[in-house]
Design goal:
single chain, alpha/beta, Rossmann fold, 2 domains, 17 helices, disordered N terminus
Length: about 375
């Protein structure tokens, strides 16, 4: 073994848990390019991930027995922060949902593309010796600072007539994705929770939940970026709302609610007129208060008229609002918030909501 290969193996320790060892040989060979790999049967997954960079799970996701066995192992407190990558035998929705429900950090599919797999593993399992606590803290601070800078441009400079540029959002997204990937959603929310401006805090909460959800779902990097941008900008229309209504400590009157309900249209009109923003971002800005049953606003859209990126943003927007501190009510616990959303029968995408459960429950 060369010196460089040996150095790599000391940095990243991977556990390959498989109930199909005959078919996992090729995957193990690919993973060995990235570090030290130990292959075990799913029944032999250790009780604690001592020294592991992450777990790669190659099981039959159609088998209730295999799924339950892995769930019992990886749901333990010791594995809470351990990244896990799942192998999909096919692209069927059922298998993908099972992987998400088991807390997948990312997914890969057969047939294997060695180069693509190594890229995904490097992203999912940062090498343990190359990223210390100091780096994590710096990444977190840079991410929050970048997101805050966008808030300033939205809520202070845009109403004053200074255009918001798409490049401003793109410049922030790298730092935000890195912050949440290399620290944690909990640390992001704790840091953001110190913001006194309630509107800033809400947008930063929504961005944190959206990015963490995207990473949990194993979305491609490009899709994670799209979602981060949309989450940052979803409430841009509130920049044109009266401050006395936005910051009101008590319940809003019906007239004030009517004014607030104008914010999706105001934001959409402003950025559409300015130009340069992708259609899906404008879609989120205009429609993040629409419901599947047609009872939302401003257009009363329903069912298939509402895009996936809007459905996802709506879920994290509502959840963030419920768990934040508000001047006029106590924040909900994560259990209470999720329970309230489950009662919104017919309004939210129930499959996405259940896929969000591990994100909501896993970071408090």
């Amino acid at each position: 073994m060369s010196a460089s290969a040996n150095n790599t193996s000391t940095k990243r320790r991977l556990l390959l848990a498989s109930d199909r060892s005959d078919q996992s040989v090729e995957l193990a060979s690919i993973l060995q390019n990235l570090g030290q790999v130990e292959t075990v049967a799913t029944s032999d997954i250790p009780d604690a991930p001592t020294g592991l960079s992450g777990v790669v799970v190659d099981i039959n996701l159609r088998s209730p027995e295999s799924v339950q066995l892995v769930r019992n192992k990886l749901s333990k407190q010791a594995y809470r922060e351990t990244p896990r990558l799942f192998v999909l035998a096919d692209a069927l929705h059922h298998a993908t949902m099972q992987a998400w429900a088991l807390g997948a950090t990312d997914t890969i599919s057969r047939p294997f593309d060695a180069k693509a797999i190594m890229q995904r593993v490097r992203a999912a399992f940062p090498d343990s010796s190359g990223y210390d606590e100091t780096d994590r803290g710096k990444a977190l601070n840079r991410g929050v600072e970048a997101a805050h800078a966008v808030m300033v441009k939205i809520f202070e400079k845009l109403p004053a007539g200074e255009p918001l540029k798409f490049d401003d959002i793109v410049a922030a997204e790298n730092k935000i994705l890195k912050a949440i990937r290399h620290s944690s959603l909990r640390e992001w929310l704790t840091t953001v929770g110190c913001h006194h401006n309630e509107t800033y805090r809400h947008c930063l909460f929504v961005t944190g939940f959206a990015v963490s959800f995207a990473q949990h779902l194993g979305m491609r990097e490009d899709d994670q970026r799209r979602l981060a941008r949309a989450a940052l900008l979803h409430d841009v229309g509130k920049a044109f709302m009266p401050v006395e209504i936005l910051d009101k400590p008590g319940d809003l009157t019906e007239e004030e609610k009517a004014v607030i309900r104008e914010h999706p249209r105001r934001g959409y009109d402003a950025l559409s007129a300015q130009g340069g923003f992708p259609p899906e971002m404008l879609d989120v800005i205009l429609h993040h208060h629409e419901f599947l049953d047609g009872t939302g606003y401003p257009n009363g859209l329903s069912g298939s008229q509402i895009s996936d990126i809007v459905r996802l943003t709506t879920i994290v927007d509502i959840y963030a609002a419920l768990v934040e501190k508000r001047a006029y009510r106590l924040q909900f616990t994560h259990v209470k918030a999720f329970s309230e959303m489950e009662k919104m029968d017919g309004k939210l995408d129930k499959h996405l909501l259940q896929a969000f459960r591990p994100v909501a429950f896993g970071h408090y």
